[in-house]
Amino acid sequence: MAEDLKITASANKEEQYQSLIPQIEALLYGETDLVANLANICAALKEQFKWFWVGFYLVKDNELVLAPFQGPVACTRIAKGKGVCGSAWQRAETLIVPDVEEFPGHIACSSLSRSEIVIPLFHNNEVVGVLDVDSSELNEFDETDARHLKQIIKLINF
Question: Which one, 61, 76, 140, 151, has the greatest CB density within 10 A?
Answer without folding.
Answer: 140
